[in-house]
């Protein structure tokens, strides 16, 4: 690729990013393969605990979230600043955080998935992709990959590649899309949580009391739109403080909380660490 071509491409991506940011769309540069850059040396090779290829940030100690969806910003000083200047020279595309502006992208990865969507989902704005289409709805939800063959949900705590404004009228996120993550078989990695064995007096008036507490904890984690790490820890601590001393809390209850946290992008390691720290803080 010639130098003038590189300059044109760099300028085009930066121009696109600034235009989106001006419309309150959080953006970030993507390198080849639709993968985010690792924006600080301390996080290279996922030493911060993020997921492979920098697609999900870990609990690093950077001054600000340094990669993946958490780096997306609307701040023009960041977008045009020296830290990102070198990244735009290498960028292959512009990414954005759909959930950050209250949108959900149904990523249809092949022709069969597109045909299924046309039969099943309400029409909305569509954007052509290399192999299929993005269907964009107004409304945010949890993000889950592979809800069915060739179909990913991209909304909160993920990024999507910007491929243009698309065509058609954007409609409200339908229940048919929300239901996809409910019916999807669980793919969360099993993790081990040490559950207190009890010994104290049970304060639960009935099994319903415990079930309501666990369900509320799952909901609190699922609905977190920011500070997810802190929300997970505080929720674990609240559950252990309320239900951890009498022996009613089981591995099944802990697994439900871990699954909710991992659905929000938390790593298995962070779940175990947060649970252990919460137990210590609760004096268990």
What is the number of E strands?
9
Count of helical stretches: 9
Helix and strand pattern: HEEHHEEHEEEEEHHHHH
Shape: globular
Radius of gyration based on Cα positions: 21 Å
Quaternary structure state of the chains depicted: single chain
Structural class: alpha+beta
Largest sheet: 5 strands, antiparallel
**Share of helix, binned:** 25-40%
Strand arrangement within the widest β-sheet reads 5-6-4-8-7
pLDDT < 50 runs, ≥5 residues: 1-7, 184-191
- Could you tell me how far the N terminus lies from the C terminus, measured between alpha carbons in angstroms? 61 Å
Approximate strand percentage? 5-15%
What value does the average pLDDT take? Answer: 80
Task: Write up this protein.
It is a single chain. The protein has 284 residues and is an alpha+beta fold. The protein has nine helices and nine strands. It has a five-stranded antiparallel sheet. A four-stranded antiparallel sheet has the order 2-1-3-9. A hairpin with a 3-residue loop joins strand 1 (27-31) and strand 2 (35-36). Helix 6 (207-222) runs antiparallel to helix 7 (228-243) and helix 6 packs parallel to helix 8 (251-263).
């Amino acid at each position: 690729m010639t130098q003038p071509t590189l300059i044109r491409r760099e300028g085009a991506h930066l121009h696109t990013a600034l235009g989106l940011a001006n419309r309150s769309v959080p953006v970030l540069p993507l390198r080849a393969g639709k993968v985010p850059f690792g924006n600080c040396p301390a996080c290279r090779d996922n030493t911060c605990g993020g997921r492979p290829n920098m697609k999900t940030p870990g609990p690093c100690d950077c001054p600000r979230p340094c990669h993946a969806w958490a780096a997306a910003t609307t701040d023009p000083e960041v977008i045009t600043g020296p830290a990102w200047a070198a990244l735009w020279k290498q960028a292959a595309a512009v990414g954005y955080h759909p959930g950050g502006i209250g949108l959900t992208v149904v990523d249809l990865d092949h022709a069969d998935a597109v045909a299924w969507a046309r039969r099943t989902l309400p029409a909305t704005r569509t954007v052509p992709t290399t192999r299929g289409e993005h269907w964009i709805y107004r409304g945010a939800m949890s993000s889950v990959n592979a809800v069915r063959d060739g179909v990913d949900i991209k909304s909160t705590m993920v990024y999507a590649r910007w491929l243009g404004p698309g065509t058609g009228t954007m409609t409200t996120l339908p229940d048919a899309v929300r239901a996809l993550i409910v019916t999807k078989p669980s793919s969360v990695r099993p993790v081990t949580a040490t559950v207190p064995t009890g010994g104290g007096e049970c304060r639960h008036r009935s099994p319903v009391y415990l079930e309501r507490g666990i369900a509320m904890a799952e909901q609190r984690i699922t609905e977190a739109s920011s500070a997810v790490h802190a929300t997970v820890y505080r929720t674990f601590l609240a559950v252990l403080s309320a239900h951890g001393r009498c022996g009613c809390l089981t591995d099944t209850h802990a697994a439900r909380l871990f699954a909710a946290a991992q659905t929000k992008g938390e790593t298995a390691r962070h779940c175990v660490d947060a649970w252990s720290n919460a137990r210590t803080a609760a004096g268990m």
